[in-house]
Amino acid sequence: MSQGLLLAEEKEATRAYGWAATDSSGILTPFHFTRRANGDRDISIKILYCGICHSDLHMLKNDHAISIYPLVPGHEIVGQVTKVGRQVTKFKVGDVAGVGGIVGTCGTCSNCTHDLETYCPKMILTSSSHYHDGSITYGGYSDHIVVDEHFAVTIPKSMSLHGTPPLLCAGITVYSPMLYHGLCRPGQHLGVVGLGGLGHLAVKFAKAFGMKVTVISTSSRKKKEAIQRLGVDAFLLSHHQQQLQDAMGTMDGIIDTVSAPHAVYPLVGLLKTGGNLILVGAPAASSPELPSLPLIMGRKSISGSAGGGMRETQEMIEFAAKHNISADVEVIPMDYVNTAMDRLVNNDVQYRFVIDVANTLKKPLSY
């Protein structure tokens, strides 16, 4: 590329402002950076709200040894389109768009051509990855983002702007395996392990499908909330042996949302013959011991899921709009993010933090 073209691209790049961590302490502070120029297939989005995912915490702390600093987290983004490239067909200026966990893939592998972009081996994360041009991707704890329209979804006008961001990660993470494994039919019995950001959305989707839902939790204090407000049919304490015994062989499937190391053997016993335990939580360390004999004798299976592709994410958003599904959130200002991370470590949120970016990200006067 000629020096003239490089200078032209640099001139078109836009200044951006957000909060970033500079090392594995994970402490977030104000950060100036640039976004790439809006290309032919790109849209620019003014970020209105951004959810805080537990994986943001892992990335800030470099728990998976893949973090790139400075790191601007955030992959549950809802905002307003401010610019569209000349080849963009899905969006127009003024539309509300959502961006989830990925902003790029190879586009040619079997996963990409079968609408499974999340499983592309060259997947580019919304935050802390290298984009096609070698630049670092910066997430949604910032004022705006530029993204290829393929990796954005349209948000219906009826949806809550602050309740929608977690659907773009937590929502598709539970929705996709439910559909893939056929756990979406009225009258089926679904177990949901953990009643947090992912778990409460699994409950909401399952109830919208007309399923019977049992929550399995370590905390008795969540029982009233689960039954009276979320409408679950039963609640089991994971350490209560008699409760587990009484529920043996009753569930068609189980969505396990817990990100901390835990035993899966007791969960397998809750499945009917042919049932499936689906792991969607991502522990930072250690893996559960595989209970091979119960799997063999019950024709049961344990599987994992990282969510769905872009087409399925759009379908999930439309299903959520139709059934009035949104996340239960605590809206916070940008300068509260470090406190929110501390609370997240202690599971002190019901059920997801969402940053009010548009109203609380205070730009410096010199910006």
From TrEMBL:
Keywords: Metal-binding, Oxidoreductase, Zinc. SUPFAM superfamilies: GroES-like, NAD(P)-binding Rossmann-fold domains. InterPro entries: ADH-like_C, ADH-like_N, ADH_Zn_CS, CAD-like, ER, GroES-like_sf, NAD(P)-bd_dom_sf. Residues 26-355 form the Enoyl reductase (ER) domain. Its cofactor is Zn(2+). The keyword Manganese does not apply. Transmembrane segments: none annotated. It comes from the Eukaryota. Belongs to the zinc-containing alcohol dehydrogenase family. PANTHER family: ALDEHYDE REDUCTASE. This is Enoyl reductase (ER) domain-containing protein. It comes from Stylosanthes scabra.
